[in-house]
UniProtKB/TrEMBL annotation:
Transmembrane segments: none annotated. It comes from Aliiglaciecola lipolytica E3. The keyword Iron does not apply. This is Uncharacterized protein. It holds the Pfam family Aminotran_3.
Amino acid sequence: MLFDNKGKKYLEAMSGLWCTSLGYNNQELIDAASQQLSKLSYSHMFGGKTHQVGIDLAEKISDMVPTKDAKVFFGNSGSDANDTNIKLLRYYFNAIGKPQKYKIIVRERSYHGVTVASASLTGLPVNHTNFDLPFSALGILRTDATQYYHCSHVGELEVERLLFMRIYSASPCAQSIFSRLILISLLHFIGS
Ligand SMILES: Cc1ncc(COP(=O)(O)O)c(C=O)c1O
């Protein structure tokens, strides 16, 4: 529960921006942060440097993800992480001699952050208007949002979008024809 400056109560069901799921004033977190601050309050990881807490956390995360020997690259925010993702992709494909592989397909109405690169990935006009974002330099292509309520095409059934949105990305027309064909086959299959 949170209170605003007029004492109005809010049920904070979003957990901040999805990052306070352990709650506010969590004593365990306060103790851990305060112990760490008294031990080593700051140290960077720039230019190949590191520190024990960073190593321990990276190893823990690496063990948790379903990739063998995963490497961990820390960022300061979600936006920063998405910028880094773009840089890593560019770097990788340049390194293996495929610089032409740089396009990124993003969804309309998606949210990926607010820095220059991550706002370019984001599919919301409010994050684009008047910012002169470098969409084409970043190789950004857009496809439909998954939502049916806001983004369905005329005549599209909700089940069509639910079933097929994740399977393919194509023009609205191709989507509609393709999904109808699959739906018809599915209905035949269920009916037979
Ligand atoms: C899916 C997603 N990507 C990126 C971000 C951006 O993260 P940040 O606000 O830490 O820059 C958010 C933030 O809410 C997000 O929900």
